[in-house]
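Consider the subject:
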Amino acid sequence: MSDEPQPQQPARKKPRRTGWRRILPTWRMTLGTLLVGTLLLIGGLLLGYHLVHIPSANALAIKQANVYLYADGSVIARDGEVNRENVGLGRISQDAQHAVLAAEDRDFYTESAVDPQAMVRAAWNTATGKGKQSGSTITQQYVKNYYLQQEQTVTRKVKEFFIAIKLDREQTKDEILEGYLNTSYFGRNAYGIQAAAQAYYGVDAQDLDAARAAYLAALVNAPSQYDVVTHPENRPAAEARWNYVLDGMVQKGWLDATERAGLKFPAPKESTNSTGLSGQRGYIVRIMKDHLIQNKLVGEEELDAGGYRITTTLQKDKQNAFVDAVNDNLIDRLDQKEREVDTYVRAGGTAVEPKTGKVRAMYNGIDYVKQYTPNATRRDYQVGSIFKPFVFAAAVEHGSTTQDGLPITPNTVYDGTNKRPVEGWPGGLYDPANEDDRSYGDITVREATDKSVNAVYAQLAVDVGSDKVQQTAIDLGLPSTTPELTPSPSIALGVATASTLDMAEAYATLANHGVHRDTVLIEKITKDGQETVPLPEGKDRRAVSREAADTTTAVLRGVVQNGTATAALGAGRPAAGKTGTAEEDKAAWFAGYTPELATVVAVMGQNPDTAAQEKLYGAMGLPRVNGGGAPAEIWAQFTREALEGEPVSSFDLELQAGAERTAPPTADTGSRPPTTAPDDDTPSTPEPDENTDRTPDPDNGSDQGRTDGGTSEGSNGDTTGGTTDGTTDGGTTDGTTDGGTTGDTDGRGNGGNGSTDGENPETGSRGGLTGFVPRPRGE
């Protein structure tokens, strides 16, 4: 071998990664990252498990009350005391246990304390806009209810996660389920399944069957919305949730399919509450809580925690005046022992200040602990003819014309023949009946409003456009979601089911010359005596032109002076208003206003056992209840007392061109069938001679500007300088009526045309109802 040094081989270099491979981590980097991440996750879980301890129970048992105040700061009610009775699992029926599991966590007994997959899925659905979801197991919900607060924060969710894991190791599934059933909120201030069973059905938790248990389980998901007594309009949603629970019980083998098929939805009872919420107090608290929650001013869970002082817009003197007026003109006239129909009678009402939109008084029922449903805000009774002013307002607003191309004004003449088919409606034959099948022949819009002639107003709705009528009603203040507020000729007859609060808001817009102001229920909210909760600023907008609103007011002045609402004269102030009656006399309404206050009153029939709507024939010992009777009398007394001491204001009206002129009266050539009440031997009032010449006598100045006992406005229109303060009765207020009766001016009778709203004739004092044939509405 040569001693010469041998050449060295160059070291082999690792090939470098080029191109797109350079940006990818190597398998060593990936594996290292996964290992480090796993170790960190495990370490974090172990650290969290050791750092987070199971705390003491929260202070639900000593939580604060909420205080509700009148506008002057005096206390209405205190609410928030916890209604709970803890019971062992052995005192909760199997059906109740299974129903709650079917509603909230069907795999509770087989799953772990937490479900990461469900949590990730819920977070993803919430983030992607598919709805807010919790992803929590029953164990996690129990931890939130019993140990933690309700705030939606990452910290609280982390604590909930670790406490649930620890709790699952320390307590049995039965213990956790028992705690959950005793801490869940079911609405009606009922905490726990035992309190809920008593609040909704008057039974113990151990006596709950599958149907009732499924309803209570459904409440856990949305307690304030699924109470079908408080919110009858939400019953379809509540029943859907109820069916979901029962189907889940069948799926898990907890309920026989045959038994499930035979179950019917178990309507809960009207709740009884503590005497601290008796009278109007409980209703007010319920309405204010719903308002806060639905408008997202304060959450339901935050209200439940307590500590709020809520100053309402209600005025104590007006609230008391409303109660007195209902008692004097309705409740004191009932005899529930002698007349079963008197047990059906319910009343509701709302008064709104037109210039501010503030709700100043509400009447909801005789006593919250006896009748749970707030009658001022319920939306399940037809409003009847108090809807008709919206049709006329729409006509003026849109410059509408008749089928012959004539402009629609208060003096436009229509055919008031009974069951006359409407013209120009493409939806098929529609021929509504007038009350008692009475025909009026040619009649002005003004007179048709006084007498509430259905045939005229159905045609008006078509001439204006029922879609425009619908939109005008919404612009004035009715919610767009009002049931049965649909564009068709029948909209004019008031088939929509709005609340007295809704209607008062709309009538307040008319009183405010067409400017709509959002209704205001709450003046101020503070938390723990310090923090002020921000409230939205009320918004003003023009709903209809001043001309449309004021001309409607002028026409409604005539209804009070000469038409179906003469009882409202008892207020002793310039007033405008309209009477109305629901189909089959299940509700009677009066909606009216002065320049200072717009108030709507409804008398409704409801079966106290089944909650079904009932006819009010015979209530108060009268053959019929209608808008010109008790509702108008209540309105008159309330308005007189509520505004006592305030200066009397006149309406300052700017009218549609030509509206200040009163058209020559039209001849009433129609007729109606003999009017005899069922089982009533009282002779009917004789009809006037149908062939009598009804043209005003030029030699008798007192008869100028009226016909048939004063059914149209006075000829002078009270006009001054382009404005008018409404109309007069043509120089007399007690002329012979179309039914031969004599009107009076003390608010107890029915002058003018001898009927309460052109639908339900009445005679005598206090709206005495004699001589008629009750019949279903023509709608």
Remarks:
- The two ends are 125 Å apart (CA to CA).
- The CA atoms of residues 27 and 140 lie 39 Å apart.
